[in-house]
Amino acid sequence: MTSVPATAVAIAAAVRAGEVSAREVLDAHLAVIDERETDVHAFNLVLADEARAATTEVDRRVAAGEDPGPLAGVPVALKDNLCTRGIPTTCSSRILDGWRPPYDATVVSRVVAAGGIVVGKTNLDEFAMGSSTENSAFGPTRNPRDLDRVPGGSSGGSAAAVAAGFAPLSLGSDTGGSIRQPAALCGVVGVKPTYGLVSRYGLMAFASSLDQIGPFSTTVADSALLLEAIGGHDPRDSTSIAEPLAALTSVLDRGVAGLRVGLVSELMGEGIAPDVLARVHAAAAALAAAGAEIGEVSVPAASYGLSAYYLIAPAEASSNLARYDGVRFGLRVDAPTTAEMNEATRTAGFGDEVKRRIMLGTYALSAGYYDAYYGQALKVRTLIVRDFAAAYERFDLLLAPTSPTTAFRFGAKTADPLSMYLNDVCTIPSNLAGHPAMSVPFGPGADGLPVGVQLLAPALGEATMFRAAAVVEAAAPALTEVAR
Amino acid sequence: MTAVNLTHEPIEGEHFHVTSATTGDVWEIVVGLEVHCELATATKLFCSCPNHFGSEPNTNVCPVCLGLPGSLPVLNHQVVELAMRLGRALRCSVEPSVFARKNYFYPDMPKDYQVSQFDRPINVDGWLDLPDGTRVGVERAHIEEDTGKNTHAGGSGRIHGAQYSLVDYNRAGVPLVEIVGRPHIRHPDQAKAYVDELRAILLATGASDAKMEEGSLRVDANVSVRRVGDTALGTRCEVKNLNSLRSLGRAIEYEARRQVDLLETGERVKQETRHWDEGAGRTRPGRSKEEAEDYRYFQEPDLVPLVPGPEWIAAVDAAMPELPAARRARLAETAGVTPAEAAIAVSRDLDGLAAAAIGAGGDPGRVLTHVEHDLAVDGAGNLDPIHLAALVGLELDGKLTATQAKAVLAEMVATGEHPEAIAQASGFEAMDTSTLEGVLDEIVTGCPDEWVGYCEGDDKRRAKLQGFFVGKVMKATKGRADGKVVTALLEQRRVAAV
Predict the structure, then answer these.
(1) Are B94 and B227 members of one domain?
(2) What Cα–Cα distance (Å) separates residue A284 from each residue in A193, A262, A263, A349, B156?
(3) Do B74 and A236 touch (CB under 8 A)?
(4) Residue of B437 and A96 predicted with greater confidence
(5) Chain A: closest CA distance from residue B169 (Å)
(6) How far apart are the first and last CA of chain A?
(7) Burial of residue B114, with CB atoms counted within 10 A of its CB: 0-12 exposed, 13-18 middle, 19 or more buried
(8) Residue spans per domain, chain A
(9) In whole angstroms, how far apart are CA B231 and each of A262, B20, B181, B228, B259?
(10) Same domain, yes or no, for B350 and B474?
(11) Mean pLDDT calculated for residue range A458-462
(12) Contact (CB<8Å) A338/B159
């Protein structure tokens, strides 16, 4: 067998050049899945047959002298909250039992149109609610770097799939850190784009004003490649940004000379593990060495981000998840009246964390409480936008930790939902502001597990963010081999 | 609850008052109407499914209007256009608006929330003038989506006790505008006139086909009562299930009497939703809920604020057709009548014809009578107003009787010919006086007793016998004689005889 390149950029180039077939690329990845998936459980569903059929088409096009596109023959894993036509899409929930969407999400169509090969649907915390993938109805995903530890969440399956070598690329969704935190914990690159840059059509909503789809990959360039393929205006999403997507892959080598990068004071202190802080400072030093100016900046309202998020996101979720009522699709538990059927279905179909957030959100929106909770949270959101705007008057980019700690052990935080929620403290402000942010691996923490550093940019600042990410990546120390 | 006492007598007049049989107090009705109307768009509010009534169940559906996971709404441009047209016709100001979610569970609502406009509606603060001159305020006219339709099978046909329910989602996501009227209506007839006027405006602007019977126009009435002279509003009940204008009027009257009875016996009106039962002629309380609904409104995050630019609003204004109130005023001026008297011609869309016929010299009163009563709305379009004026002239000159004129008019509509030609061909040429005198001679001679009675009897007997003789003449002339002329000739003879 011809040797299969490791990165998406290299694979696509080789497939387009006819140096390796899409089928060979796929088979190599299916072999890795065969070997390790039982341990890792990254997937809810591996689509081996469908993927093989898709490679046949890509290979036919190459043979015919056509260009299959920028993702030619690259295996891509999809978070299982992205609708795939005729293929079960579960959100890792019992409530969607048996449901097959009659349509593809826009990002899925774009991946396929770009020549990408969908290899499977990845595990997640039920309805993307969680930070460890322990809330999946189908059992947890394990961190490929250490199988006793969580991969993070909620896109834990997508992060693990890339970290384990099951696919060079995957897609996740990030509502409060659900791409960046698992990317950090699994030692891969994860990007949450500007809100509206990637169409949400076909993403099963958790919190519509915060949800954003983005890539996972082992390299910064691969994420840029995937984001270019999926981004850009979609008339089916009213919140989709109309402007054309800025070029990313072609600007990666431009460096950071003269860029001003601010360390966010509020995210560099209490609650953040010292070894994680040390890695962030080291990344700042690497950026400085490449010519960036480093400073400190305060984003005062960021301190209230977590509280505001845990009102806004559940409030929207309580409404978004109302449609799972047993009437039209998915699970139905029969009962004498419609209301009793709704209740029985939802009681059986939803897990504890989903129920907890539906109740939180319902309460936050209730008459008499709206102003004190949801209304107040919206004000905090406005303040965060304002404080970020002030910070970006002085800085081009901000730098912070992605996750307060490295990957934790299974069960370490399941008993106390609040301690689990604190995982998102550094990632949430970008969602509330609608700004892009990404996590880039930057060597091991004290326990030898990966640490991710987070680059934050103003709206539509992806190009600058990716340039800095490439510099950080180049300076990142190798992750020492960790016991599995 | 006390039995409803229907002995109260309504007082006729501008305001509908109820006088208590027991206390003699006079009560006033206060009504505000909420009207939902389906907009006449080609496609639904947030997707490209056809907006079409009467298709096979669940054929006009897609992931968006079925609320399938992952689907997202995209606002239909035509909805905004039609909503603005209606709003501007109702003298509303068009404001930047936002969509909100109204959350509640019901099987006919695919997402278990309804996308509507809550605290920032597109059209605010307008009014509507009734033909009687009353100005009824319009608080708002906002955009929202319709629900699907449940059919309950088995049991009573209602949701309780049904064996199973079927849901048709064809209507789910059809665009609606809800027009919230202020409580300025004081009479059941005014309520009916308001809906009539609104319907005329909806049709004129092309916003809706406004068919109550197909449910594309649905009316709920908020009804309260208060003692005449009170300024505070009483507790209101919202009456639903009003499927016709007749139901609307009856329901308001019934509900007002019910509330007066309650208040006069020292009870309170409970704020609630009530359903009109047309068969029983009464309202009944809706399903009682343990708690008040909390819809948990919040801004719809899947849609962006709707901010129509000033150019768009100006274009809507520029393209605004002449509205019924203006047409009534115009015809009233031309015809020298009140706007209320011009209302029927306008509502029949025959005001243009009437004005042209009057302009061509036709007598306004006779012209209006014809367009109000004698012309079918369909087919009147090819009637030449000059011919209509000529017809009216023939009538006034005594050359055609009223009955003949109607027959001629029907022929004019059918053939497009001139009334004189039709009258001649039909032998309708009015009889001259000398011919009539001859006919009368024969009849009077043939009925000597009746003639004596006519000449010498009291007024009552003379009136009766006048009818007898006119009838005889009509019979003898096969209706070609003019009744008025015959009466005059009879009277001349009587005076000459005595």
Answers:
(1) yes
(2) 22, 9, 8, 46, 73
(3) yes
(4) A96
(5) 11
(6) 28
(7) buried
(8) 8-233+252-307+374-475
(9) 64, 19, 18, 8, 17
(10) no
(11) 98
(12) yes
Domain at A8-233+252-307+374-475: CATH code: 3.90.1300.10
Do the domain assignments include residue B321? no
Structure tokens at A102: 């009659």
Confirm or reject contact between B21 and chain A (CB < 8 A).
no
Among B72, B113, B296, select the one facing A200 at the smallest CB separation: B72
Nearest residue, CB atoms, B105 vs list A201, A342, A366: A342
Residues in chain A closer than 8 A to B110 (CB atoms): 323, 328
Average pLDDT across chain B, whole number: 89
A79 is catalytic: yes
Name the amino acid, one letter, at A332. Answer: R
Q: Is position A413 annotated as part of the catalytic site?
A: no
pLDDT band of residue B24 (cuts 50, 70, 90) is confident
- Mutate which of B68, B166, B307 to disrupt the A interface (most A C-beta within 10 Å)? B68
Chain A and chain B share a number of CB contacts under 8 A equal to: 100
Pairing between β-strand B123-129 and β-strand B175-181 as defined by DSSP bridges: unpaired
How do residues A376-395 score in pLDDT, each as one tens digit?
999 999 999 999 999 999 99
- Quick: pLDDT tens for B237-289: 999 989 899 999 999 999 999 999 999 889 999 999 999 999 999 999 986 55
Catalytic site residue from A21, A79, A155, A303: A79
pTM of the predicted model, to two decimals? 0.89
Q: Reply yes or no on whether the pLDDT at B304 is more than 80.
A: yes
Domain count across chain B: 3
Residues of A in contact with B63 (CB under 8 A): 101-103
The CA–CA distances, whole Å, from B460 to B85, B465, B483 equal 61, 9, 19
Per residue in A259-300, pLDDT tens?
Answer: 999 999 999 988 899 999 999 999 999 999 999 999 999 999
B74, A322: Cβ pair inside 8 Å?
Answer: no
Instruction: Compare CB distances from A201 to B70, B294, B298 and report the shortest one's residue.
Output: B70
Catalytic residue (one of A155, A158, A173, A178) = A178
Catalytic site includes residue A178: yes
A328 in contact with B, Cβ within 8 Å: yes
Determine what percent of chain B is predicted with pLDDT higher than 70: 92
Strand partners, A415: none
Q: What is the DSSP string of B154-183?
A: STTSSSTT-SEEEEE-TTTT-EEEEEEE-S
Annotated catalytic residue, options A93, A132, A136, A154: A154
Tokens 């009793």: give the residue.
Answer: A340
Pairing state between β A260-264 and A293-297? parallel
User: What tokens does A99 get?
Assistant: 């449901």
Query: Average pLDDT, stretch B16-23?
Result: 71
Same domain, B194 and B228: yes
Please check whether residue B74 touches A, CB under 8 A: yes
B220: nearest Cα among B257, B176, B260:
B176
Structural domain including B125 reads 9-311
Window 99-158 of B: residues touching A by CB (8 A cutoff) are: 101, 103, 105, 107, 110-113
The SS3 call for residue A262 is: strand
State whether B391 and B469 are in the same domain. no
A271 DSSP 8-state letter? T
Stretch B302-312: mean pLDDT = 97
End residue of a domain, out of B425, B442, B468: B425
Chain B nearest-CA distance from A351, in A, is 18
- pLDDT digits over B451-485, tens only? 988 988 888 888 899 989 988 888 888 777 777 78
**Whole-complex ipTM:** 0.96
Cβ of B296 and A91 within 8 Å?
Answer: no
Query: Are residues B101 and A319, on separate chains, in Cβ contact within 8 Å?
Result: yes
B412 plus B438 within the same structural domain: no
